[in-house]
Every structure is written in structure tokens, then in C-alpha cells.
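Handout, section B. The chain below has 368 residues.
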Amino acid sequence: MSTAICSCGAAPAGGGPSATTVHVQPTVSAATVPHEWPDMPLWAYGISAAPHPGDKPKPQGPRGRSFDPTIDRKEQLRPLHLDGSPRSYSLYDLSDWGNPADWFPNEHPPLPRVVQHGPARLGAQTCACAYCHKTTGGGRPDNAPVAGLPVDYFLRQLEDFRSGRRVSADPRKSNTRTMIQLAQAMSEDEKRAAANYYAGQTGGPHVRVIETDRAPPAHLEGNRFVASGSERTEPLHDQILEVAGDPKQSEKLDNPHFGYIAYVPSGSVARGKRLVTSGTTGGTPADAVTQACGSCHGAQLRGLGDAPPIAGRSPSYLVRQLYDFKTGARNGAGAAGMKPVAAKLTTAQMTDIASYLATLPRADIDAH
């Protein structure tokens, strides 16, 4: 699939980098990448070329409000509105990492300070939880959906980031470095406040899955794909294209009422269901390549104990995590049970698993 790629970053609105066009192979064979990253699903990480030993992330920034040099300043200061919202923000406002937009404050409990403004210890260099993960906890394809996570699991992930036991298989992934900095700066009270808040959130709209052989053309803004058109003209091959259903609402305005579409390979949902439910590719023990997911994540895959829910989550995120477990990039205390699950999986099988899981209803669907 041809894409347009730009430099690393994760800003959802004003101040983001501009895109430049390159051609990307949909998959990269193990022979063309360092042995540390065989069969790497580049698309899941939002990158165009495999990493090399010694690669490091570029700092994300600036953290405060900033002007985008490609847009007229008066346009960036113009108040913007959403239907049903009592608030207005400008593009300049939307660029503020330490004070993200909260368009619908009546739809959630009061935001804890750390969710709204980030760890106090970082001062002007802070980044609010909600800037990347949204007030709903739904996140975006290039980061994590954190809504509905068990509190103990959430706290364990922060500790793994803080201690360096959770990194990314792509050493250039800038928002992983940001998470490490935030986790190291957060107080115990801030960690628990964020965990308790997001445990009660729904995540916003469910990802819409479309099985297809072709997908719309797309380009990368930061590490996130944005559709360049609506016609399905590009071969999908063995990857997933996860894009905003309405780029203006999701990417420019950061409207939490709009979600994402995942274009997944034809046949991947059925193949993924077989792997998720039985751990096999053909239905017999001899075909086993992994373990059935329900034993740890619950019969409906909506979480069990402090094991997180995996039903209805971003497929790009799920593939990244499976690959991170396989490579050892995720190496915390809770990773021990996932390493054998991912050890034998190919990238294509991870794609199938994520495609199927993304179709499943989340726990909040029944309650809302």
C-alpha cells in the first residue's frame, strides 16, 4: 500500500508536522531487517523503515501551546465549536499538551488534575493523560486505549514504564519515551487518580471493522495514519489500516464522539477467531501456535481479574503489543504469561487475531 510518511510525533491538532510522500512496502521480510526485528509489522508502529541498532526516539514537543507555521495565525486563533458542546477552542488551544480540550465535560466525572494537566512535578514540560488518551480513555491507534482497564493492571503498567521494563520494539517511538517520563514523574496519588478515573470510562465509539482486499490511500501524520481519500484503491495485503472515520472531527478538532475505521484483510476475522478461541490454525492440537485467550481474559474477552479487556480494542495497538511481547520489549511482571502466547505467532497471525478482537463488543456496549 502506498502511503505518505512524515516525521515522528503524536499531536492531534494544530502544530503537527506536515507530510511528505514515500512508497512503503506492506511487509518487510526478515532478510531485510536486523535480526532483532524479524517480520516487524511496520504499519502497526506507524513507520516506513525498520529500526537499526542504536536508534533513539526524537523528543516530542513543544509541550505548551504553539503555532503551526504552515497555517495562518489568525486562522489558528479563531474559536471553534462542536454541536452540543458548551465550550470553544482554537487550533492554538488544541495544541496545548498540558491542557487538552474537554468538549463535553458533562459526560464524565470531574477530571483528576493529572488527567487534565499531567504530573505536577513536570511543570511547564508536563503532558496531560487526556491529551493522548482522551477524556474517554479511547486513545488513538498510535497510543493505548486505556478505558475500562483494571486499576491494578493500570498501575502495574505505569510501574513497568517507570522502571524501564516496558518499552517499544521500535526504539524510535517517541510517545513511549513520553510515557516513561510521565510515569517517572507521577506521584502515587496521581497514578491512582488516573487509574480510578479511566477504569470507569467507556472509551467512546467502537472501532468499525471492514474486511476488504483494498483500502483508501493514506499518509502518516506522526505515527498515525490519516486517509487521503475515500475510494478503496490501494492493495491492503497482510496489514491493517486504521484511520479516523472523520479526519476533521477526530484529528483536527479532537472530538471524542468520532471514532476509527479499521480496514482488515479479507478472511482475517475468521482466521483470527480460530486462533483466539482455540489457539490453532486448523482446529487440531497439532495446529496449535498459541493459547486460547479466554482462559486469562475471560470468556467474553472483556477482562478477568486484573487481566485487561481485549475485546473491541484498537487492532493497531493489539498487534504492537503482541509483537512487543514476542520481542521482549514488554518485560514486566505481567508479561510472563503473554510471552509464550506470542512466541510462535507470525505477524500475519497477529494481524488476524487483532482483526477478530476488534469486531467484538466491549463491556460498555451492554451498559450503554
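Note. The chain has two domains: 3-51+205-367, 73-199. Compare this with the example in section A.
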